[in-house]
Structures are given as C-alpha cells and as structure tokens.
Amino acid sequence: MPGYGFAQFEFGESLGGNIDNQSRSYTVLRKLGWGMNSSTWLVQDQSNQAYFALKALNGHCTQYAAKGVSWELPALQLTTSTPGHDPTPHCLRLVDHFFLPGKGSAERHLCLVTPLFGGDITRYARSSNFLRHPLPLAKRILLHTLRALNGLHECGVVHTDIKPDNIFFDITLSNEDIRMLLESDPSQRHQAEASYDGIVHAAVSQPLPLPTIEEFTKRTFVLGDLGSAQPIGQRITDHICPESLRPPEIYIGGLWDEKVDIWSFGCLVYEIVTGVPLFKTKEGSVGGVHLDATEIMLFQMIAHTREVFLAKQLSASPLAGDYFNETCRLKKKPGHYLYQTEHWVVRSSDGDISMDKAKEVVRFMRRCLRLDPADRTSTKELLQDEWFEDAA
C-alpha cells in the first residue's frame, strides 16, 4: 500500500538533520532492530563522532505524526526541554529530529535521534534466561521507571504504553568498543527478496551485545517509546495500554487521565518481581461460569484489589451496563473471590521472597491498583514510599 513502507537506508549513507538552526548530519552504520511501526539504526554524528540511535517511523506512522494522531514528537520535545522542568535521566531525551523522503512505497519518514541504549529489559531477561528479576534489581528498575513517569506527568504527558519492552538500560560500551564491534562484526543485509517495493535487500537487525549480569544490575533504566503518548487533558484515542496492563476505566469506556499510567505501573510491579503478568487476558471459565476476555479481566481486578466498583464510576462509563447490573455487581457471577496475591508472589519466587516481603510488594502494588482512578496514588507520593528505601 503506497505510503506505508519502512525506511530503506544504505550503510554509510549520510542523513541530515537540524537543531537550533544548525545543520547536523549522521552516518548510518547498522540496523539495531525494528517493530510494527518503525526501525532503529545505529548512527554516528559527523560533527563529533558520537554514536546515537535513530528511530525511523514507517510511512504510515509518519502520516499519523504529520496529522497529529501520533504525539510522539511533541511528547519528546516536552520531556526534553519544558521550561522550568529539570529533565530526569530516566526519561527518553530527544537529540534531534527531521523528516526524510521515503523510498519505494513510503512517502517520507519522521526520524527521531536519541541517546544510544544497550537494549530493553525483556530482551535481557530472555537472553539471560531470567524468569524474574531478583528483588533488589526489580526495585531499581521500578524506581527508575517511576521517576520517569513522574517526569512525564510533570511535563503534561501520559505514556499509556508502560511495559517491560519499553524499559531500556544505558549502554556499557565505549566509542572504541563500538568501533571495534563494527570492524569485527560488520553490518549485514538479507538476501534479495520480493516486496511491495520490488526487489529489496533489507538490512539485518544486529542489536548491540548485552552486558554481564553484574553490569546489568548497575545500569540506569529509562522509560522509552513515546509512540503511544498523549497530552494530559486530551484523548487522541481510547485504544491504549497492553491488555494485561489496561486499567478498568478503559474496559468500561470511562474517562481517563494520567492515572492510567499508575494502574499499569502497579501491574508492572508484579510482573517484574515475579516474571509473569498479574492478569490473564483470555476468556475462560471461573467457578463453572464462562467469562469473555473483558469479563475475566474485570473479575480479576475485583479479586486482586479487594474492592467493588461504585455506582458513581459505573454510571459515568458507557460500557459498564454490558457487564454490571443495577447493584454494581458483575452480571455473570462466578462466585465471591478475594485473591491472596502475596501467596502468588511467594510461590513465584521459589522461596527467595519471604511472606513479609511479599506482603510489602502487594501493599505497594495496591496503592496503584485502585478501581477508581481518583483513588490511585500519584507518582510523587509513590516515590516517597518506604518500599523504595533500600533501592538506588
């Protein structure tokens, strides 16, 4: 389909940008990876030889950005240079941006230049056979992520897509290490293949080597990928948050604000500590009653939070009537369940987390996991929680 293609860069190609009205150029060195909407490249600033990451949105998402449907660029600009805001090292920083003409089916690409990172915590966990992060490391990752969220909210930005894949860590490689890596493991291309754009030689994704476990525990973690970010007080789209991290107000069609990030963060606490998602998102049977995917999510939310939905929230949520009766109870009644979430934490840790520590994990989680968004604790208050006293 015309206009939808991915960026097609040549190794050694010079890409031009500008910042502060001064021209800057970057040399394409390697493809680091790609996702549904973009590809990421290792580039070198020709003026000072510094290495950066360049995220090139595909043609389709570049069109969205130009129309204001995608708010990634404004969000990055706000978090990088909001007057009076002291940027946290845990928020992604924008170095440069520019539009480039596309090749083939893509009309053009929005290119975002950011600092270079070593990878994301999901990739590291898979490569290192981590089923879960040890509690001290989990706290470090979560503390840094919460600082990032606080910075975003202070700048008027809601992330809406908090998940392990979007938590990055700073790089351990020096410029000399990268130069030697490029010499010993040259950038590669796939064999020629047919595509909508004709015959192409796509670049092979070659991520940077991962740090050792000892190095990883000392990294600075950064919340990245603002591709789904939205301004506080506006709702560009209601299709937000991964299903397992999606808050109740989205499922029942209610109004939402930055507190969606707090709910997602509470789910993230459990996932990073235990290695498994808190919520199951597929339809299934509970107590002999079949629940669809939304019903089973709402049921689990009640069971984990030990709360009930109140009439005030449900009456303001257009989809609530599909799932709740006039007494604010689920129409389908699988029984009365209150999950002992702390027992789940202990079982998942293979004995590494005591019941006392598990109770502290769950206590902290439940400050985030409140059915009514107004009851959720702010990022500033969460940062003062005693659970982080031994985190760095």
TrEMBL record:
Annotated GO CC locations: nucleus
SMART domains: S_TKc
Keywords from the UniProt entry: ATP-binding, Kinase, Nucleotide-binding, Serine/threonine-protein kinase, Transferase
InterPro entries xrefs: CLK_kinases (IPR051175), Kinase-like_dom_sf (IPR011009), Prot_kinase_dom (IPR000719), Protein_kinase_ATP_BS (IPR017441), Ser/Thr_kinase_AS (IPR008271)
Sequence ranges assigned to domain Protein kinase in this UniProt record: 26-388
Residues holding ATP: 55
GO terms under biological process: regulation of RNA splicing
UniProt-listed Pfam families: Pkinase
Keyword Translocase assigned: no
GO molecular function ontology, one term from the record: protein serine/threonine kinase activity
Family the UniProt entry places it in: Belongs to the protein kinase superfamily.
Protein name: Kinase-like protein
Organism whose genome encodes this protein: Armillaria borealis
Lineage: Eukaryota, Fungi, Dikarya, Basidiomycota, Agaricomycotina
